[in-house]
């Protein structure tokens, strides 16, 4: 890692812990900063904070006292999940204290270049595909961000010949200042996280920050099938590499006569791809573009696409139980993700859905429920989903307490040849700490069926 001096003897507040806050605080301490950590969880219930205390880092737990901002901090590193309308952040901005996320720290200390992936849907799959393609092509990738280890932890170990492949949320991107990926990917843009950003415009502006510092020496891989993504491209200084599932392009990644092509060169036949779902072609094309720009041979790309069947919790094949194929799509935390999951299957489907109520309705699902013969609901949104299920003409609708109970209920209404699909269309936080926990409970319940 680069031994930078810019944080030495600076007074820095790390706001919010979790993995990113712990790593950032430890790193800043190593770099000679005077670090204070502030986390809402009480110290007695906070082993992470206790560990930082043992390192000699000042820790304040149990609340976010606004008067803390009067202590002369020169920088705040905030947890990405803390919104900008939080009183501490608003107070810091009023006082002119810069606010960043730990991704910025990672970039500043990294010896290795970055490939950054963002967008509404497909980030995790695309990030994993890029990583696997670079790995198969012997390009020494490291994976970081929401999908892997904390970025500033990975960056401490990265060497010049490595490449850090990182999944980036809009929350993380709002806190960058100089972060500049060698290759940036924007998969697509739809409504998401409006409770955090306030408006679609602000959400898109946050996503656009991935290319904000790029120059003509870097690349922006962008979805050519969306006006809003192409509008971002117009304002980027990077070399634009478009991808499209709908039209032939003069350059970039696209589909023609059943083949994946890059800059006019056939790379692989679509029929040989193992990953299910038409929607995954967007992810595949953008990942292929990043791999080709990184010098990966077609043969390595082919090996990955012939064997990669999906990431955990994203349309993940779990098991065949007495002729029922069961899929875990717990990462489908919005309607569009569930639409894409439903579109991946043509046969009779038992859908398990529900979760945190963010105030939206689910009518947009109706056209995609034609193959759903049974709907099993749970969580806060169960009544809303049941209303939509009735409008769609689903004959069997059943409400259960949670995902664990939804699995045997779904099996009860299924027959050999059916697909049982967990694709909640909602965040998990009404009942579960994360979509990963929800998905793991689902998988465990499936294995109990056996």
UniProtKB/TrEMBL annotation:
EC number: 6.3.2.9
SUPFAM superfamilies referenced in this protein's UniProt entry, alphabetically: MurCD N-terminal domain (SSF51984), MurD-like peptide ligases, catalytic domain (SSF53623), MurD-like peptide ligases, peptide-binding domain (SSF53244)
Any one cellular-component term (Gene Ontology): cytoplasm
Positions of the Mur ligase C-terminal domain: 313-426
Subcellular localization, as worded in the UniProt entry: Cytoplasm
InterPro entries reported in the protein's UniProt record: Mur-like_cat_sf, Mur_ligase_C, Mur_ligase_C_dom_sf, Mur_ligase_cen, MurD
Domain Mur ligase central residues, every copy: 117-291
Keyword NADP recorded: no
Transmembrane stretches, start-end: none
Protein name per Swiss-Prot or TrEMBL: UDP-N-acetylmuramoylalanine--D-glutamate ligase
Protein purpose: Cell wall formation. Catalyzes the addition of glutamate to the nucleotide precursor UDP-N-acetylmuramoyl-L-alanine (UMA).
Pathway: Cell wall biogenesis; peptidoglycan biosynthesis
Domain of life: Bacteria
């Amino acid at each position: 890692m680069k031994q930078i001096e810019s944080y030495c003897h600076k007074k820095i507040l790390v706001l919010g812990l979790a993995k990113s806050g712990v790593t950032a605080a430890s790193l800043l301490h190593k770099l000679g900063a005077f670090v204070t950590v502030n986390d809402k969880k009480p110290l007695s219930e906070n082993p992470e904070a206790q560990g930082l205390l043992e390192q000699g880092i000042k820790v304040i737990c149990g609340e976010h006292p606004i008067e803390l901002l009067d202590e002369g901090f020169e920088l705040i590193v905030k947890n990405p999940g803390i919104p900008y309308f939080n009183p501490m952040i608003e107070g810091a901005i009023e006082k002119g204290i810069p606010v960043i996320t730990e991704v910025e720290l990672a970039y500043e200390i990294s010896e290795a270049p970055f490939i950054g992936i963002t967008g509404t849907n497909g980030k995790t799959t695309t990030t994993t595909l890029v990583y696997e393609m670079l790995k198969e092509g012997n390009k020494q990738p490291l994976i970081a961000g929401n999908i892997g280890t904390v970025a500033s932890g990975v960056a401490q170990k990265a060497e010049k010949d490595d490449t850090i492949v990182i999944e980036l949320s809009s929350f993380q991107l709002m806190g960058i200042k100089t972060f500049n990926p060698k290759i940036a990917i924007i998969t697509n843009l739809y409504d998401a996280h409006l409770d955090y950003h306030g408006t679609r415009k602000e959400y898109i502006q946050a996503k656009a920050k991935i290319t904000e510092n790029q120059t003509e020496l870097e690349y922006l891989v962008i979805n050519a099938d969306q006006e809003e993504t192409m509008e971002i491209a117009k304002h980027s200084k990077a070399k634009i590499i478009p991808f499209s599932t709908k039209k032939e392009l003069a350059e970039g990644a696209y589909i023609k006569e059943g083949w994946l092509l890059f800059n006019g060169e056939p790379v692989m036949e679509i029929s040989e791809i193992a990953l299910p779902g038409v929607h995954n072609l967007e992810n595949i094309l953008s990942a292929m573009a990043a791999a080709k720009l990184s010098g990966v041979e077609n043969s390595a790309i082919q090996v990955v696409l012939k064997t990669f069947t999906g990431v955990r919790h994203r349309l993940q094949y779990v098991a065949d139980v007495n002729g029922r194929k069961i899929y875990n799509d717990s990462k489908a935390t919005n309607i569009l993700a569930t639409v894409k999951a439903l579109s991946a299957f043509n046969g009779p489907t038992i859908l398990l859905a529900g979760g945190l109520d963010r105030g939206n309705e689910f009518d947009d699902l109706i056209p995609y429920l034609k193959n759903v013969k049974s709907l099993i609901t749970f969580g806060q949104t169960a009544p809303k989903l049941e209303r939509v299920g009735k409008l769609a003409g689903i004959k069997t609708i059943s409400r259960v307490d949670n995902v664990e109970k939804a699995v045997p209920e779904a099996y009860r209404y299924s027959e050999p040849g059916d697909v049982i699909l967990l694709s909640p269309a909602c965040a998990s936080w009404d009942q579960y700490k994360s979509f990963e926990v929800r998905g793991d409970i689902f998988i465990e319940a499936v294995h109990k069926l056996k």
